[in-house]
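ok so I'm stuck.
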Amino acid sequence: MKKITVLIAAIVLITGIGFIYSFSYNQYTPVLVERQEFESSVASMPVQELHNPGKIFVRSNLLFIVEKFYGVHIINNMDPTNPQKVGFIRILGCTEVTVKNNTMYASSAVDLVVIDISDIHNVREVNRIRNVFPEIQSPSGEYDWKYSESQRPANTVIIAWNKK
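replied:
not stuck anymore, here's the structure
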């Protein structure tokens, strides 16, 4: 009788773990971009709406607000009671940003990009250091081998994750 109770408890435990695992696993799919397109994507863009704001960096009267995975909003904060949107810098895979003088340093998925922002409306990528950062992970924290570099299309980069 004791063996049957232990067996039933083990089956319930394993089934429960399997259910929890299948429920939480693979709720996201990666946004893949070909490496060539990814590396040529840094550009000045018109003002964009904030959808998924991240970190904020302040330099002088300017606010740089990361739009998670897609770029950086630039806001003139000379009058804090009336901030003005100035523009947007598209940086695919962006999660981090800092600025020194007229140079922006930003994460771009796995790369570090250096951008000349002396003319906010005409930014220019001046350097890119490839594969500095780990790959952007799924928000669930789960790792699905089918999206590993060896399993997905060649020369692609994960720039974000979308909920299924």
